[in-house]
Amino acid sequence: MLKTAFIRSLLFTLLVIAVVALTACGPEDNADSAVGVNSNKTYHWKMVTTWPPGFPVLQEGAERFAENVKAMSNGRIKIKVYAGGELIPALQTFDAVSQGTVEMGHGSAYYWAGKVPEAQFFSTVPFGMTPRGMNAWLYHGGGLELWREIYEPFHVVPFPLGNTGVQMGGWFNKEINSVDDLQGLKMRIPGLGGKVFAKAGGNPVLLAGSEVYTALERNTIDATEWIGPYHDQRLGLYRAAKHYYYPGWHEPGTVLELTVNKRAWDSLPADLKAIITHAAESENVLMLSEMEQKNLTALKEMRARSDIRIQRFPDDVLSRLAAMTEETLAEEATADPKFKRVYEAYEAFRQKDDAWTAISEKSYLAIEHD
Amino acid sequence: MLKTAFIRSLLFTLLVIAVVALTACGPEDNADSAVGVNSNKTYHWKMVTTWPPGFPVLQEGAERFAENVKAMSNGRIKIKVYAGGELIPALQTFDAVSQGTVEMGHGSAYYWAGKVPEAQFFSTVPFGMTPRGMNAWLYHGGGLELWREIYEPFHVVPFPLGNTGVQMGGWFNKEINSVDDLQGLKMRIPGLGGKVFAKAGGNPVLLAGSEVYTALERNTIDATEWIGPYHDQRLGLYRAAKHYYYPGWHEPGTVLELTVNKRAWDSLPADLKAIITHAAESENVLMLSEMEQKNLTALKEMRARSDIRIQRFPDDVLSRLAAMTEETLAEEATADPKFKRVYEAYEAFRQKDDAWTAISEKSYLAIEHD
To answer: Which PANTHER family match (chains A, B) (predicted)?
Structure first.
């Protein structure tokens, strides 16, 4: 009896251990069923971008975002980042995310202007808001909600992820002293900026980044805009034209976007959604900060060269271009109710932002130091 | 024999189940030993802040940061946030984090000027960089590394977490037409701004936020600075003084800081460290954006009132204060080698940032629109 009792007791003990041990793994299963997704699963996602392979700051920023997401999720979501053309052509990024060919994309909303004209307000518009105003509008002024609504029919969820800051006005092979000097000028300048430039009598040309330097150097074009001191210096544009104009009235702070396929997004557990959301916000400030740091360093190097003339567009040219921008935006809005709706939301915020900027950032920066 | 064999077999089976079941939980233990910390552990941390309970944007931002960290970590790190005075007095935040009384703090580096004078460069200095330049310096210009080095002897790890943006110049009970009008003026203005104000002949007064309104209303002081339109409106300062001056030369974009006790930080697994790091970066841009959005809304409301005179300090007053700031910083640097070292690193970056800002943000904002 003693032996049988011992065996019974041992059996019972082992049974308890087995049951307790098995159920000890239970909380994760409970958590899974609670969120309706498999929180233990490792997600292998693809991101395609609109940037050339290894493109500094922008492609690098998309890759840093992927690394940060991996680190935060302890490897539960691994995003493989492909530059433009590596998996699909750069300008098919939006479609690839929309169709679910890939889960994620990185680019800027004005690239899809042909398909979604009103998307341009979520990247940048001529004489529009700088990064500070754009972030305030997107994160706290209803901008992001509107952006999500605009992309919803395409099954795409957008997030701000990076910003170029105020760009430069571009490289010209002659001085620009009045709007008359823009007459017939062939300039690589895309999007709404190009439309305004055409209204001013210029001849906007569409060229891929890879063709810009050669076209300018061979006088196929008379002028080109690119980004800012750092990227412009790397492209060697100072060797092809001497007049480097500022400010970049056509792109006062281009918002870069993360796009996520809606179905892929919905498949994620809540913690991974939170990780992606805040990693995008984090990379938004990191990328802008890196642009600023690299631009201020490159500008100092450019200032040391005698063969680059860094010049401001004359006030009259800027004022006239600003007036033509208002006309252009009003024309687009008249022709397209969707464009009009986003334009009005953007404008309502921009006007308040302008009034505040006038007595804060603008007024502060205007102080004359010795 | 059959029965004994069955029991033996059953015993063996249960033993195998028990062992397999127990070791099935093993991978997490393996992961634990790999990182040298318990990655399964739930961390219950405390954060103390320098803000009053419920203080909009700032205390709220610290609380949102804690919520985001909880969501990203799926509840593995829970941070309970205490406002100033709830657990310890507001201005003991740094010491509490340093001593490990709490794991985290939120405030701004200039509050510890008495203990670490050079820390002021990591919050804001008069006529210094705006948030854009500060973020570029901290994240990509070596600023954060220097900040970590400065806090290292105190066992505190700092992170930028939030920014007020360019502040307002303050409320005055009379017009300021020249530096002479500052003579003998009693103004609530703390820190380096207060020292510069004293050099200009003013009488800086130290007052806690809770005392500011009453002191101004009862003419115990003649003027006070606070934050910006949104917080100033909430405090009702327009009922106590009519002249509302801009820009906030003394605080052109105050960086808020997350501080983490070094030992607590070292105890975290890598994924939670990544989550805290990027949640702080995320909240950095979110809080600044919320400040902007609330300020531009409040300014519009203030503009609608006839009893508030929103005025710019005269150019001459600003230029003279800027010159006195240079003198003040040079004096502090002469007296304190540590202050000098951080001042020089800050200045080297600021000068390049100024040159870039002049042709980007400043030049762009100066465009005259119709």
So the answer is: EXTRACYTOPLASMIC SOLUTE RECEPTOR PROTEIN, PTHR33376
